[in-house]
Specification:
The protein has 505 residues and is α/β, with parallel strands linked by helices. An eleven-stranded mixed β-sheet has the order 1-9-18-17-16-15-14-13-10-11-12. A hairpin with a 5-residue loop joins β17 and β18. α9 crosses α15 and α15 crosses α16. The longest helix is centred in the C-terminal third of the chain and has 23 residues.
Amino acid sequence: MKIFTGNQIHELDKYTIEHEPISSIDLMERASKAIYHTISAEYDNRISFVVFAGPGNNGGDALAVSRMLAENGYNVSVFLFNIHNHLSEECATNKQRILDGKKIKKFTEITVNFDPPTLDENTVVIDGLFGSGLNKPLSGGFASLVKYINASACKVISIDLPSGLMCEDNTYNIPTNIIKANQTFTLQQKKLAMLLADNQIFLGKIKVLDIRLSQEFIQNTDSPYQMVEENDIRSLLHHRNDFAHKGNMGNALIIAGSYGMAGASVLATKACLRAGVGKVTAVTPRRNYEIMQISVPEAVLQMDKDELYFSEPIDTEKYNAVGIGPGLGSLENTAIALIAQIRRATCPIVIDADALNILANHRAWMQQLPPGAILTPHPKEMDRLNNGINNGSYDRLRKAQELAEHFQVYIILKGHYSALCLPDGHIFFNTTGNSGMATAGSGDVLTGIITGLLAKGYKQEEACKLGMYLHGLAGDLAVKDLGKESLIASDIIKYLPQAFLRLED
């Protein structure tokens, strides 16, 4: 599913109106009916609604929904803000329909002064002030109204987007001037802001309402942002030949672990094997030998000459993919071995965890990343790669996008919607996974899965998309049985076979 920018959403509406064809007011009526039916399915007509409508088309949606609620026996109070004495054509039309219908007992148009209504726990506010039409933070009276709503005990339903929140970049927005919705009913598709962690406190539960906007426009219009869905992933899956043997199912190398961090090596290696690769060699310090031999008997072990840490690079000629970084530590000898390993990589490489932290501490080494390398930072690791700068989720995503383009690498910025940044600037958001996976070792598992897929012959983009989707899907399947609170990283590996089966059905 494509994620369009605010400008593209406006163009999508315009294209639908011109090519369906349908009038703008009738398209608004269609959207409003979808919102009304969603609200009426959740709230009976004993609930009192207070509707705050702005002067634009978001306000027009809110007025149309108000009329539909009132026509079906709901108690609705409407406040239309027209402080500049100018309404959009559709908003003005829906205002007149309310006045002509006479079903709404309390309709107030605010042009100068506003006496706010009482909002308590028995009130549901419908926020139709601005939706996705803003390009700067709210201020003045509207900011005061937002603060008043947020301070009350009422529930809030926002139409399309909570008022005050912008479609994409909220880096310099004012959080206190943004509606904190309990539910957001967004039209046709999610907006980029909905995928970023900083904005979740404003959105509540998101529901996407299909209002039948032009599929022709959607299919033919390129977007820098897309969401990876199950049908996309099914088409990527390679099916194992009945005559396959381990020699043609890939040979992977995992370089992970230091003394006291053997678990990272165990998790990455097990996950790599569970990804279906024919053979995995694990390189780890000698002190980890017994742990690895007992925990992952299927792996081939190659001990580093040092007892405690990774100290020398490995020849990769015979391997199809390398995963490096989980639990390596950050000793200078390890750092030197890491950059030597990166320099001599002759196959696709996945760089994670401590390997990323070492690169962050030696930023000049980034220039030596081989084209097509895969980096898998979590937010803090991404900030370190960016000189410790953190201006919020959108800025972090943009920096990851720039880094991927500049070095021609693949970056998976991990999170609830993990973002795969491609070398060509496109970004794909993963749609599987849950907060139970916020546990130590989860990233090590992802490294192992992607390395295994690369070794099996998947291209970098395919391995990243499939790897992060399978990783999240295994976590989702585990949560159904175990719950979020008790999930641990090894559970993700345990449920990986079920995730594969789900995609193969």
